[in-house]
Write a structure and sequence with these properties.
By secondary structure, the chain is α/β, with parallel strands linked by helices. Helix content is about 35%, strand content about 10%. Helix 8 links the parallel strand 4 (about 195-200) and strand 5 (about 240-245).
């Protein structure tokens, strides 16, 4: 694949100006549509795209999606397991975290509670057990450290590994752990029972963790440590989900910088299975409660730019529950996945935003000309890769749950009536 910074862009009839020169954006889009990778310097052209050209970048982004993904749009039928809401970090927009007094004694879900949720999800046809939790609460709260030690664990991540193993062995659900930043040893501990893992990069902007920024009191949100976690996943061959959060004070160029950082890691290891473009939603009783929601136009721009930078083969997701009124418009900007959708559990990170019903999701997707298919927490291309990415302890489960193309066995009919 050529790169725009090393090869001339092809000329496109009908867009020359009076002096017979193409506009920089037109050159960029024409070359991208013909398979050229947008170079890091050239990507700056995208920053200035305004409303009058938004449809142009969306059109090329959708074209690239069609080249790589055809007319299939996926989702993962899941249950959300908030293993603990205690967290050492304080982010300016988060209502998920709690301190021990607010948790009212329920510092962690017990193994029995975890299995109850997983089994209930399995009975509804779900295949993903999404573990989301606060970052290393034992480092801030003695209560968390005592709870863990009383049960034989020295860290939260050791406990995560334990319950992931339980779910993998006691149910037909596949764990997908999002436990925050991880060392190589910690990720290796989780790997045997997680076909994939995830960590939102969110941003590479330094401004966000400076004084007054939303990440000022969140050491685990430093880009360096989050990028290192994503890098470790590549070194260990863990299919990995990451993404960016838009509208929290970052600039367009900083969004591009974050997407390029993801692209560089994926180019090295081939392990980034999915990139989420998530829009900020202000929540009451947070430092950012009075901040405006991320605008739809900015989300459209970011989605289209993500597809242009990441290419036709990347899986690009927008969460439908965070844009409930019109989420289908992001299909026009190049996405091919809706992420996890649950028939059982709420989105504990965004509790004000209910999941769409499956019939609605299918119908809105179909209205745009796409077929909705359920997938596992590991994408088909990683299931079907010649050199397997699936850990040996869960290969039989993955094989039993997936069809010959790597999607969930039984397809959308599996959920008829849900």
């Amino acid at each position: 694949m050529t790169t725009l910074e090393s090869a001339p862009a092809p000329r496109h009839q009908g867009v020359e100006t009076e002096d017979s020169l193409l506009l920089p954006l037109d050159e960029l889009l024409e070359a991208a549509a013909h398979g050229a990778t947008i170079g890091e310097e050239q990507s700056a052209v995208l920053v200035g795209v305004d409303g009058s050209r938004l449809s142009d970048i969306c059109s090329v982004a959708a074209q690239l999606r069609n080249q790589g993904k055809g007319t299939t749009v996926t989702f993962s039928p899941k249950v959300f397991i908030p293993l603990t809401r205690l967290c050492r970090d304080f982010c300016g927009y988060c209502t998920f975290r709690q301190d021990p007094s607010a948790a009212a004694g329920n510092l962690f879900m017990t193994p029995e509670e975890v299995l109850d949720v997983a089994r209930a999800g399995q009975s509804l046809g779900c295949t993903e057990a999404l573990f989301t939790l606060g970052e290393r609460p034992e480092q801030r709260y003695p209560e968390a450290k005592d709870w863990l030690e009383h049960r034989g664990f020295s860290t939260t991540l050791e406990y995560v590994a334990h319950v992931c193993k339980l779910v993998a062995e006691e149910t037909q659900m596949l764990p997908h752990a999002n436990p925050g930043t991880m060392s190589r040893r910690e990720m290796a501990l989780l790997q045997p029972y997680n076909p994939s893992m995830g960590l939102m990069l969110e941003s590479t902007s330094q401004n966000l963790y400076e004084r007054g920024g939303p990440h000022e009191f969140a050491p685990s949100k430093r880009p360096r440590v989050r990028l290192r976690t994503i890098e470790i996943a590549g070194e260990l061959r863990v299919p990995f989900t990451t993404g960016i959060l838009i509208g929290i004070g970052e600039s367009r160029q900083e969004r591009i910088d974050a997407l390029l950082a993801i692209r560089r890691l994926h180019a090295t290891f081939g392990h980034v299975q999915e990139v989420i473009i998530q829009n900020f939603r202000a929540k009451p009783e947070t430092p950012m409660a009075s901040s405006p929601h991320a605008e739809a136009e900015e989300l459209l721009w970011t989605v289209a730019v993500a597809r242009l930078l990441l290419g036709p083969d990347m899986n690009v997701q927008v969460p439908p529950n965070l844009s409930a009124d019109d989420y289908e418009i992001y299909l026009d900007a190049g996405i091919n996945d809706w992420g996890g959708v649950s028939p059982l559990t709420i989105d504990f990170v965004n509790p004000e935003a209910p999941w769409p019903g499956l019939n609605q999701l299918r119908d809105r997707t179909a209205a745009k000309g796409f077929e909705l298919k359920p997938r596992l927490p590991i994408y088909p291309e990683y299931i079907n890769a010649p050199d397997t990415w699936v850990p040996e302890p869960i290969r039989a489960t993955v094989a039993a749950l997936s069809d010959s193309d790597g999607y969930v066995q039984g397809g959308i009919q599996r959920y008829a009536g849900n």
